[in-house]
Specification:
Helices cover 93% and strands 0% of the residues. The radius of gyration is 36 Å and the shape is rod-shaped.
Length: 98
């Protein structure tokens, strides 16, 4: 092989190596950015899941709240029932502590 051909081949190989090195650096940067994007999206997903959970609780509360009749007699009866349940729970707690 002629020294000139060998020199040309080495220069060609050197250019290819440099191109590959540049691609490697670029892909490394892209990979880092994609990892940061994934982290941000995972945080957003966690936030949205928490919000969804709270909205489901709120929705359930609203379903119950709308199922309660609005007339005064029924409301008074419900209050009495709740008060009785609280008294029963307090009595049970006292018995457990005794």
């Amino acid at each position: 092989m002629q020294p000139m051909e060998l020199n040309d081949k080495l220069q060609n190989l050197s250019r290819k190596v440099e191109i590959l090195r540049e691609r490697h650096v670029a892909l490394g940067k892209e990979n880092s950015e994609l990892k940061r994007t994934v982290e941000r999206q995972e945080l957003e997903i966690a936030k949205l899941e928490k919000e969804l959970k709270q909205l489901r609780i709120d929705n359930e509360f609203l379903k119950v709240a709308h199922s309660v009749p609005r007339d005064r007699d029924t409301i008074a009866r419900y209050k009495q029932q709740v008060a009785k349940m609280v008294r029963d729970i307090d009595r049970c707690i006292k018995q457990l502590n005794a």
